[in-house]
Structures are given as structure tokens and as C-alpha cells.
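Input (structure):
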């Protein structure tokens, strides 16, 4: 997992073309804190015919990956079954300040019961959203809806756009296994 004691984290590279003179790469710890603190992300997937599909959704950062859930028949789930590569983005929506983060990776369905229980606890603690774990997915108590699969996206590449003090664009590359 990136940033653990066994892994020093991703390699950071400042893109001088889009950064102010004298800028330095943002530390991964600052970017990871932004991912952990964000509640809403924009998920970008691709339909089978190549058209993009972008939606806002809540996600949580846990164990070096972003996690979200969706109904099995929702367009994003259909898209991810056909093409699991996707992008999640979060930020401030401000021009002169803040930090925007773009995470590229491959969505994988989470089926590990222990991890699903940890994620359900995070959803409750961070978003006040109650989920039960059932059949390897999330279910809202008392709902007639079928269980919703949970997906995890471990970053392959992250772009961070900082605008506090000086403009910076930092790319983080992750080791692939």
C-alpha cells in the first residue's frame, strides 16, 4: 500500500510547464490527506460506445485506494464491468486557492467481507450513511433495493493541482505489481 512503512509512497514529479517558478512538488502526505478528507468525487467512466459518463458520488479513502458503491444496474457499474479503467477527481472548485486531485486507476469489486465491514464503518463515521454487508456488497437497512457492489480504485497515477501560495502541478507515479 502506498505510504505505508513498507512502501515509501509514489514518486513525485513537478511539471514545471504548469507550475510557478520556484515551486516544489506537493508532498504526498498533503495529497493523501485531501483524498481522505474529501466526501464527494467525480467518477469518469466510458460507455461501450466510447461516450464518457461522469457523475458525482461519495467515496472513502482506505488502505491506499478510493472506494465507492453503486447499484448493479446503474450506468457507472455497467461501464466498469466493460471497462474498469476510470478516473476519480475531487477539489475545491476555486480558481485562486485550494487543491484539486485527479486519481487514475482500475476499479475492482471489493468482495472481502472484513474490508467491506471496515468500509461500512467508514461510511457511517464519515458520511452518516448506514450500510450492512450482505452477499459481498452493501445494502441499506430496510431498503428493497438489491445489494450494491463496492469498488476500490488503487491509484496508478495521481495529478495534484495546488494553488495556495504558488501554482503547482505534481504527478505521482505508483509502482505497479
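Output (sequence):
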Amino acid at each position: 500500500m502506498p505510504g505505508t512503512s513498507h512502501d515509501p509512497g509514489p514518486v513525485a514529479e513537478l511539471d514545471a510547464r504548469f507550475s510557478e517558478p520556484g515551486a516544489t512538488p506537493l508532498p504526498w502526505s498533503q495529497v493523501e490527506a485531501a483524498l481522505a478528507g474529501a466526501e464527494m468525487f467525480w467518477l469518469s467512466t466510458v460507455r461501450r460506445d466510447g461516450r464518457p459518463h461522469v457523475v458525482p458520488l461519495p467515496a472513502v479513502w482506505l488502505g491506499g485506494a478510493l472506494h465507492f458503491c453503486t447499484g448493479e444496474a446503474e450506468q457507472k457499474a455497467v461501464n466498469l464491468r466493460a471497462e474498469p479503467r476510470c478516473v476519480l477527481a475531487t477539489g475545491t472548485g476555486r480558481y485562486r486557492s485550494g487543491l484539486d486531485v485527479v486519481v487514475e486507476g482500475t476499479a475492482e469489486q471489493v468482495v472481502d467481507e472484513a474490508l467491506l465491514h471496515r468500509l461500512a464503518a467508514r461510511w457511517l463515521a464519515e458520511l452518516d450513511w448506514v450500510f450492512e454487508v450482505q452477499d459481498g456488497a452493501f445494502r441499506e437497512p430496510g431498503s428493497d433495493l438489491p445489494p450494491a457492489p463496492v469498488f476500490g480504485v488503487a491509484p496508478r497515477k495521481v495529478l495534484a493541482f495546488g494553488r495556495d501560495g504558488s501554482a503547482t502541478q505534481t504527478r505521482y507515479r505508483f509502482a505497479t505489481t
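Notes: Confidence is low (pLDDT under 50) at residues 1-5. DSSP finds three helices and eleven strands in the chain.
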